[in-house]
Each structure stands twice: as C-alpha cells, then as structure tokens.
C-alpha cells in the first residue's frame, strides 16, 4: 500500500476530509493532548493502530520514522480529547418526543427490569449527528418511568444498527426510588413540598420484590422462568450496576440503607441534587453520583443561588466519584451541550481537566467501561476528538475530526448542511 504523509504543515481539515483517511496506522503529531485523567501533553504523538490506541507520548526529543505509518497528520496547536460520554439519556430512543409512537424509552407497568433499551436504540435517529458535532461519541441509552424502568446499554454514536453500535449491553438496572416528599404546585402557595403518604407502602413493596428476586436468583432449579427476576440476576452478582434515581439527602440516606440491606454490589446515585450534604456517607459506602445538569436553581429560597453550579466542586473536594448528565426537558437535544455544562463547572471551582474527566474518564469509571474508553491511554479504543479550540468552551469548541474505535466519524448533520447552504447563498465570509 502506498504510504501517505499528510500535513507537513498544519493539517487542513477543510481540504482533506475524513473520507480520505482509510488507513489502519495513523499518527497525530504536535497536538495538545488532554488525556482525561487530569494530565496534559503539550506536544503529543498519538498513534492509532486499527481500532486501538497504540502510542501516547510527547514529541519532544523524539525522532519519528514517518514511513512506519500509513498516515501522519500534523495537528499543531489543536486539542485532542477522549470521546465524551453522555450518561443517563434517552438519546436514540425517540425521534419526536411530542409523538408517542416514536417514544421507545418507557413501557406500561411499574416493575420492568426485563425491558432493554438496547433493542430500541435507533442508529438513524436525526438528533444523534447533531450531538457528535460537539465531541460526544458515546451515550448510555436509558429507559424511563415506572418504579423499575429497565436496563440501559452503552452505545457508540455510529453504526448501521444497534448490534453495530453497542459497546456494553445491559450495563445496569434503573430504579426510581420512592420519595418521602413530592413537589406540589398551586397558584395560592406556589411550589411546596407535599408528604408522600404511600412512602412506607412503596418502600415495602420494593423491598419484597428485591427479596423475592434474590431468593429466585439463588435457586438453581426453576420449574418456571420469571423474566423480571432473571433480569435482576446481574445486579445481585455484580455484573451490572443499580442506578438509583434520587435528589434529596434524606431519600439518598434511605437508599443507602436499602443498598446495604440487599447487599447491592455496584450502586450509583443518579440526580443527587443534595448529595453534597451527605458526601461523607457516599464516600464511606463507595457510591458514585451522576449529577444532573448544573444550570439549575436551588429548591429552597434559603439556599445559595449558585449551590447547584458548585455541586461538582463540592463532591470533588470530598473525594466522591461523580460524572455529569443532562436528564430532564429535551434531554436528547440538550446532549450536545454536555461539554458546556462541564465548562460551566470550571467557573465554580473545578479545574478544566477535572471538568473534562466528569464527562470522560469519571463517566467511564461509573459505567465500569474505563478499560475500553474514557481517556487517551494505550490499549484503549481509538475513540478521540480533535478540536481547534477548548472543547468545554461554547465559543471555541470547534470539532474538526473524530474517531470511534479507529473509524473516522462523519461530522456533517442537517444543521451544518443548512449553515453551509445559506452561507454560500448569501456570500457570508
């Protein structure tokens, strides 16, 4: 095969597109590598060999034999990041949220651990390309609603079908833990807390299900198979996480008791708006947190107005493992703003590299896929992003190239096509 050396000067992505890069052994030189674990290599050499990262090192004092690579790309001054991870999201599970027939993220019934988001994931979803544009290369396709919603799976944002896209199938079961209080809105009183009168009943119901499921899973012979109990097997044996969706400190403390009572090996708190109040308990029990979007208001008038923005810093300070996610209104479309959500945390105490870790390596650790993705390290999948500016900054984030498992990603989408169309039409420079 003919060897190609591209970009002896700065690599011009607008001239040499991803379609021309079809070689197995690629070297990126002179980029600023943000490893994802807190470290930076100012002038780096990153080598992709087929689907894996072969080399990550500094170019200082290094003599390269360009002929040993299929392609050499000089990315002088550009930034290299691990592919970002979008956790706890319905991205790929609906096409038009207002149209019920396209919503594949919830099922009827209250106890649905056997429901798998994996087979509902749509690789042709029109929202997905707009998310890749900002550097997000993986998503945790997550079911919603009910007491137990079902199992999520980790999907690459590239592939012909869900079989192609899946990175880790059925990574965990999602539990919407009973709440002691609910928010209630009235025109007279505004937003108030209303006590959940069925809290004890709901908690007992949930405990009975877990006890019955564990007893079932401990038995070796069954005359009849219970698919709901079978779906809980990996939670009890530690192969899958249990994602517990909660915000309030008292509810989280109750969940910790539940976790210890049922000997759950890998629990994760999802939401955690008041997790900073019980960070010592979370640390003591080695329970990580998937923090919800930080551009939110506090729930109470007497709280600091910026307390939600400071949540990542407060958990980082107390050594609680956390990542960021965007559950809520229009969460699939909002996924594109994940790096900017992390960037906002920088203004409230996090370092830039810690903010990056909150959507890369920390997320991978919580999902237990850190041996595969999450950082630019030798032996991991060659999933990386190259941007001309800071990926966490909405002004400078300009992703020019991305790879998923060594394959170049097409960064065009309907929005970029319209942008180019009308920019050309009106002669905008």
CATH superfamily of the largest domain: Metal-dependent hydrolases
Strand content: 25-35%
Give the terminus-to-terminus CA distance: 39 Å
Query: Class by helix and strand content?
Result: alpha/beta
Please compute the radius of gyration using only Cα atoms.
23 Å
Low-confidence stretches: 5-17
Count of the domains: 2
Mean pLDDT: 91
Shape, please?
A: globular
CATH class type of the largest domain: Alpha Beta
Number of helices: 13
CATH architecture of the largest domain: Alpha-Beta Barrel
Produce the secondary structure layout.
Layout: E1 4-6, E2 25-34, E3 40-49, E4 52-58, E5 71-74, E6 79-82, E7 84-89, H1 128-132, E8 136-141, E9 148-156, H2 162-165, E10 166-175, E11 181-186, E12 190-195, H3 199-218, H4 227-231, H5 233-237, E13 241-246, H6 249-261, E14 267-271, H7 279-284, E15 289-291, H8 307-317, E16 322-324, H9 331-334, H10 338-346, H11 352-357, H12 361-367, E17 384-387, E18 399-404, E19 407-408, H13 414-425
Task: Please give a structural write-up.
This protein is of the alpha/beta class and 429 residues long. It has two domains: 4-81 and 394-425, Urease, subunit C, domain 1; 170-373, Metal-dependent hydrolases (TIM Barrel), CATH 3.20.20. It has 13 helices and 19 strands. The longest helix is centred in the middle third of the chain and has 20 residues, at 199-218.
